[in-house]
Amino acid sequence: MKIGVIGTGHVGLVTCGTLAHLGHEVVGVDTDAEKIAQLEAGKMPFFEPGLQELVDEATQAGRLTFTTDIAEGARDADVVFICVGTPPKASGEANLAAVEAAARDVARNATKRTVIVEKSTVPAGTAGRLRRTIERERKDLALDVASNPEFLREGKGVEDSLSPTRILLGAESDHAFEVLCAVYKPLIDKGCRVIQTDIATAELSKHACNAFLAMKISYANAMARMCELAGADVADVVEVMGSDPRIGKDFLGVGLGYGGYCFPKDLQAFERLAASLGYDFPLLNEVARINEEAVMAAVKKVEDTLWNLDGKRVALLGLAFKPGTDDTRLAPALGVARALIERGSSVVGYDPQAGANAKSDVPELEIAEDPYEAVEGAHCVVVCTEWPDIGSLDLAKIHDAMAYPVIVDGRNIFDPKEMAALGFTYLPAGRPPIVPT
Ligand code: UDX
């Protein structure tokens, strides 16, 4: 099939590579000429494991090209996926201007019956508006609107896209369902489950999933606060919770909470959608509040231990919003960095991938190329992202390099017994602190 993909961000580019891998002829479109030039030169605009290989395979096979011209993406296309950004407005609502513009331009340039698919996360009701936009543009052509939300995680995007847990298809015509099933036929033949719904249901389901996952994380972090007050151990509490299959063990990882471009923005947009529909959903605001509290709980531990932060040096290990990505958007690590800098501390950070992005977000942050360089002379280390190479550091070497051997473990990656044996002051999240006597 001939497929256009509008937007070559995390979702769009992974979608381009995946659809070409499935055997389709794909045109990736972006208004950012610099990004397209980079992609044409075979360079990925961000780090995503396996993406380079996937895109190289597709471009070399002649199944994937890039352009800034939306007409090229729309011409002869059976399907066009809209993967443009839906950034938050000041109110928290999703800004859908780019989605509208993409749909309008695709409709203007379509040359045959095309299924226009929302892949970007949009509030329920968006498809209806898109349909009206499209109908205004083209009365001469039957164009279908559908929703096919992605569930891909950054850092595991390629894996999630090639082996999805389910394919959600929201559509209102048999034609749209048939075309989308044909797009994903190789995955469906391998046994991937397809869930077919109406469009509003598909749109709402995506927000429902992300908000629920964020709620699980915040619930676990609220348990961490409770455990700190009660002298209990949250590692065991979540173990008990997670061993009940009705709860499940995933997304109960406590620490600094969630960041990234999806959960914080989608949660806010979902709350705004609820309000605009007339449903009061304060639970969502509470999830966000507990998430902010998780960052401040770690900052408070640094302050309580170091007393005055003026003249103190704190090293942050991990800056990306999670391991496996160079993305620092709304990364909890940057929240920690800003709060410590505001309180007078000098802050140095190390991350295997995200140093440059963190520096451009927080210019006062010093970036170290190596974790041992970062901790040299530090009065405290805060573990912010659980990269595997941070978990396997030589802790004795770190102990000797630090001015004060204090570790605030914002991801609970270290073993308290080992920390005690090494003589650290060790302050995990929701677990009993280790303070040498
Ligand atoms: C998320 C969804 O998982 C994905 O389905 C959706 O399409 C996009 O949003 P992503 O933002 O890439 O994906 O990251 P995810 O792996 O879900 O993690 C989100 C955040 O939650 C990260 O900051 C992570 O560190 C944090 N997290 C995750 C926890 O704090 N605890 C956990 O137990 C799990």
Features:
single chain; 437 residues; alpha/beta; Rossmann fold; eight-stranded mixed beta sheet; six-stranded parallel beta sheet; 14 strands; 14% strand; binds uridine-5'-diphosphate-xylopyranose
Task: Summarize the structure in words.
- With 437 residues, the protein is of the alpha/beta class.
- The chain folds into 2 domains: 2-197, 3-Layer(aba) Sandwich (Rossmann fold), CATH 3.40.50.720; 242-428, Rossmann fold (3-Layer(aba) Sandwich), CATH 3.40.50.
- Helix content is 46%, strand content 14%.
- The chain contains 19 helices and 14 strands.
- It has helices at residues 10-21, 33-40, 51-60, 70-74, 97-109, 126-137, 157-162, 174-183, 185-189, 199-230, 234-242, 263-277, 282-306, 332-342, 355-361, 371-375, 388-391, 395-401, 416-422, and strands at residues 2-6, 25-29, 64-67, 79-82, 115-118, 144-147, 167-171, 194-197, 313-317, 346-350, 366-367, 380-383, 406-409, 425-428.
- The strands form 2 sheets. An 8-stranded mixed sheet has the order 3-2-1-4-5-6-7-8, with helices on both faces. Strands 11-10-9-12-13-14 form a 6-stranded parallel sheet, sandwiched between helices.
- Strand 4, helix 5 (97-109) and strand 5 form a beta-alpha-beta unit.
- The radius of gyration is 24 Å and the shape is elongated.
- The site of uridine-5'-diphosphate-xylopyranose has 20 residues, from helix 10.
User: How many domains would you count in the coordinates?
Assistant: 2
Radius of gyration: 24 Å
Could you give me the name of the CATH homologous superfamily of the largest domain?
NAD(P)-binding Rossmann-like Domain
The CATH architecture of the largest domain is: 3-Layer(aba) Sandwich
Strand order of the largest sheet: 3-2-1-4-5-6-7-8
Proportion of residues in extended strands: 5-15%
User: Uncertain runs with pLDDT below 50, 5 residues or more?
Assistant: none
CATH class value of the largest domain: Alpha Beta
Structural class category: alpha/beta
* Principal-axes shape call: elongated
E-strand count: 14
Helix content: 40-55%
Strand count, sense and barrel status of the largest sheet are: 8 strands, mixed
